[in-house]
Each structure stands twice: as structure tokens, then as C-alpha cells.
Automatic annotation (TrEMBL):
Residues 1-10 have a biased composition (Pro residues). It comes from the Eukaryota. One of its GO terms (biological process) is positive regulation of synoviocyte proliferation. PANTHER family: PROTEIN SAAL1 (PTHR23424:SF23), SERUM AMYLOID A (PTHR23424). This is Protein SAAL1. InterPro entries: ARM-like (IPR011989), ARM-type_fold (IPR016024), Synovial_Prolif_Regulator (IPR052464). The gene is SAAL1. It comes from Rhinolophus ferrumequinum (Greater horseshoe bat). GO terms for cellular component: nucleoplasm.
């Protein structure tokens, strides 16, 4: 049976044709008001006090949904994507009916469908504002985040993301979430233990949106996990469990990594947002295990998965935002690594692979930024021009982050490291030239210091690079 069957014709019987023609249609649709009234009335009966009393001794009646009712309410779910239907449901106070179902029903499938319908309705601004202003409904919906049913959690997360994306109501939802500290535990539990990729992606989008909207909430969630001393082992009891945001984000990222690039992008952006505040950086690097786990995951992504030597350069277009987040977080960890022994001891083995990856990204970026001459693309519509400028914007961000990270690594290179890299072919004239091309003129001091080291090792190579970049020759 399909999860969401196609909506029914308004009324198929001959006796109903006159009624439909006489005003039974919902708005400009062919859906029947009478039929919809019947379905909603059936929902009311399911959660009515009389029905609740009669089913007290029969748990199965509370958790199972009648097949006919499921088919009908699924049709309403599909229909609710139409604005006329959504507005009619709003007029009929359907959100209050769904709230009653969510508050009283123990049937996971019914709860999922009701939240799903509300999620569809919230896609329309007027209804979203109305739903968001209903405090009781807001409380009930947030309580759905404590549900154990993945489909219900998925629809709840989708609804929350829709509301958080509406500027008129976003702050109200942020405040409600702040007033419910247990939501932090529930979301962390999902990120750290769920294997449902769709759910992890949607929950990640909610967290990403929350952190982007409200730095104060992000700081509160970071500090929630810092309440337990790092040097004390956690109690085995689940009741004593303390969630830390970074390990939970990492676990979710590992789960979605191979199946959903957009999901991985979301979780990398969450880490990037964490590094915009000092408490967030400390949450990553303060605990050696967390810091090392974060570094190793991100290092593996950029050196062994993204933008590889045998990938076409154009692949950078689909990886540009996730790479920007990954390099940004790696750069933040690297910049704070003075006190981090796990990086200090092994940093030599990271430098050259990262340089290779960064230079390849910058090289591919040049290919992506080349504009075709005398092609049909030069006469695109305004919307396509807007898309191109958006791509250029993200590529510029990636370039800025990559160049800053590359300059930090170049500053840390020692004479012995450079000599060994040149001898073993890990660093070439072409790579140096490509690096200089991107680092100049903004990172001139870094390039000049590297060139000094290079002169002591290979005067010929240093001279060739000076010839290619006359500004360096003049300043030396």
C-alpha cells in the first residue's frame, strides 16, 4: 500500500454530481467539502472521550489504524499540498482536531499523518503564522520530538524547519525550543543513535537553522554538554547520560556520509557554525578524543573523498559548499592546535596531503570560473544569471577559506619538511607556482618566508619561481 495514495475524485456517484456543481468543491479544486468533513469527523470520533473509554481494555485499538481510515486520511495528506485545501482545513479548525489526535492518540501512523498534514499546511505563510501563534498546538508539536517513531519525528522536523524558515514566526519557535531543554537531549539522541538517513538529514537541517538564527541558543547547547567534567567517566545508566553536541554531530555525519551529500553538507555547516564562537571551538578541541575524531573525519573527507585527482574539475560545483565548511573547521582546529598534542605530534604527516588537496581545489576552481565565449549560456535569462552569480559567490567563499588555510600551513612548513617533500616528489614547481598564484598578493609575507626556505634548498627552483612572479624578485 502506498504511503500517500492519490487524492480521490470529489464525488464519484451520479447522485453527487449536482451537489458538487452546486458548491461542494473546495476553492478551485475538484475536491469535495462533504467528503473532507466526513474524514475529519471520523478523526474527531477516534479521539472522543467515549471512544477512548471503550478502547481502554484493548491496546491494539489505540496503536493500530483502520485501513479505510488510513487511506482516507492519507488522501487528505496529499490534498493538503493544495493551498485552497489547506485554507479550507484552516477554516474548519483542522489544526485543533490534529492537536487533539496528537495529544490523545497512541497510534504512530495516525500521529505521523496528522503532523504531515500540518507540515503541508505550514508551507503557506498565512497558515504558518496561524499555526505558530497557537501556543497549545506549539507545545503539542514540540512534544512530538520526544516520540520514538522515526516517521513521526521526520514529519515533526519537517514542520519545524518550515516554521523556522518563515521570518515572521521563526523567533517564536526558537524561544519555545529554548524553554524546553529536553529537546536538546532528544535531538542529540537522534543524531547519535538513529540510522534513518532521511530523519538525520532533516534533524540536521533543523539544528543548522536554529544555530544560524540564534547564537545564544547555540551557546546554550554547547554548554549543555560541558556540564560534566571531561576527566570523569560517564555513568552507564541512560538516565545519567550527558550528551555533547560535537560527538553527536560527528556520529550523524558519519551515518549520512556515504548516502547523502546534502546531509553531510548540513552537518559540516553545523560544525562550521560552532567554530564561529570560542566555546564552540573549545567544544571541538578541548577533549582530545573529540578533537582527534573531528580532525580525522574531515581530513579523510578532503584527502580521500572530495575533489580527487581523477575527478572532473566540474565536480567542485556540487562539492563547493561542503568543502568550504570542512576547510573552515580544519583551519579553525589547526589555528588552535598549539596546545593540542594529538595534532602537534602528527602534524607533519598532515601538511603535504592538505597542501595537495587545497591546491587541487584552487586549480579546479579556475576551471569552474571560466566563462564560455560565444555560447548560448552567455544569453541566459535573469534567473540563470542569478544562479551563476550565486555559484560564483560560493566559489569565492571557498577560495578565501582555502587560501587562508593554505597560508597557515605554509607558515608551519620547516626546512626539513620542504626538502623531504621536494626530494620525494610530494611538492613540485607546478604546485608551488599554483600556490603562489592564489596566495599573492594578500599573503605576500607567507610566500616570501617560504621562498627564503626554498632558496636554501633549491636555488634553481626558487629562481624560476621568482621569474614567474616578478613582485617577489623585486622585494627580495
Amino acid at each position: 500500500m502506498d504511503r500517500n495514495p492519490s487524492p480521490p475524485p470529489s464525488r464519484s456517484e451520479d447522485d453527487d454530481e449536482e451537489e458538487v456543481a452546486g458548491g461542494d468543491c473546495i476553492g478551485s479544486t475538484v475536491y469535495s467539502k462533504h467528503w473532507l468533513f466526513g474524514v475529519l469527523s471520523g478523526l474527531i470520533q477516534i479521539v472522543s472521550p467515549e471512544n477512548a473509554k471503550s478502547s481502554t481494555d484493548d491496546e491494539e485499538q489505540q496503536v493500530e489504524l483502520d485501513e479505510e481510515m488510513e487511506n482516507e486520511i492519507c488522501r487528505v495528506w496529499d490534498m493538503s499540498m493544495d493551498e485552497d485545501v489547506a485554507l479550507f482545513l484552516q477554516e474548519f479548525n483542522a489544526p485543533d482536531i490534529f492537536m487533539g489526535v496528537l495529544a490523545k492518540s497512541k497510534c504512530p501512523r495516525l500521529r505521523e499523518i496528522c503532523v504531515g498534514i500540518l507540515g503541508n499546511m505550514a508551507c503557506f505563510q498565512e497558515i504558518c503564522v496561524s499555526i505558530s501563534s497557537n501556543k497549545n498546538l506549539g507545545q503539542v508539536l514540540l512534544h512530538c520530538l520526544y516520540d520514538s517513531d522515526p516517521p513521526t519525528l521526520l514529519e515533526t522536523s519537517r514542520l519545524l524547519l518550515t516554521c523556522l524558515s518563515q521570518t515572521q514566526v521563526a523567533s517564536a519557535w526558537v524561544e519555545r525550543i529554548r524553554e524546553h531543554p529536553a529537546i536538546y537531549d532528544s535531538i542529540c539522541f537522534i543524531m547519535s543513535s538513529s540510522t534513518n538517513v532521511d530523519l538525520l538529514v532533516k534533524v540536521g537541517e533543523v539544528v543548522d537553522k536554529l544555530f544560524d538564527l540564534d547564537e545564544k541558543l547555540m551557546l546554550e547547547w554547547i554548554r549543555n554538554g560541558a556540564a560534566q567534567p571531561l576527566d570523569q567517566p560517564q555513568e552507564e545508566s541512560e538516565e545519567q547520560r550527558v550528551f555533547r553536541i560535537v560527538p553527536c554531530v560527528l556520529e550523524a555525519a558519519k551515518q549520512v556520509r556515504s548516502e547523502n551529500l546534502e546531509g553531510l553538507d548540513v552537518y559540516m555547516h553545523i560544525l562550521q557554525l560552532l567554530t564561529t564562537v570560542d566555546d564552540g571551538i573549545q567544544a571541538i578541541v578541548q577533549c582530545p578524543d573529540t578533537g582527534k575524531d573531528t580532525w580525522n573525519l574531515l581530513f579523510d573527507l578532503v584527502c580521500h573523498e572530495f575533489c580527487q585527482s581523477d575527478d572532473p574539475p566540474i565536480i567542485l560545483q556540487e562539492q563547493k559548499t561542503v568543502l568550504a565548511s570542512v576547510f573552515s573547521v580544519l583551519s579553525a582546529i589547526y589555528a588552535s592546535q598549539a596546545e593540542q598534542e594529538y595534532l602537534k605530534i602528527e602534524k607533519g604527516k598532515y601538511h603535504l596531503p592538505l597542501i595537495d588537496s587545497l591546491i587541487r581545489v584552487l586549480q579546479n576552481m579556475e576551471h569552474c570560473q571560466k566563462k564560455p565565449e560565444n555560447s548560448a549560456e552567455s544569453n541566459t535569462e535573469d534567473t540563470k544569471k542569478s544562479d551563476l552569480s550565486q555559484d560564483d559567490f560560493h566559489l569565492k567563499i571557498l577560495k578565501d577559506i582555502s587560501c587562508e588555510f593554505l597560508s597557515n600551513i605554509f607558515q608551519a612548513l620547516t626546512k626539513d619538511t620542504v626538502a623531504k617533500a621536494l626530494k620525494e616528489g610530494q611538492l613540485s614547481k607546478q604546485q608551488c607556482s599554483r600556490a603562489f598564484q592564489n596566495l599573492l598578493p594578500f599573503y605576500s609575507p607567507v610566500v616570501e618566508d617560504f621562498l627564503k626556505i626554498l632558496r636554501e634548498i633549491d636555488k634553481t627552483l626558487a629562481g624560476d619561481l621568482e621569474e614567474s612572479f616578478p613582485s617577489l624578485k623585486v622585494q627580495t
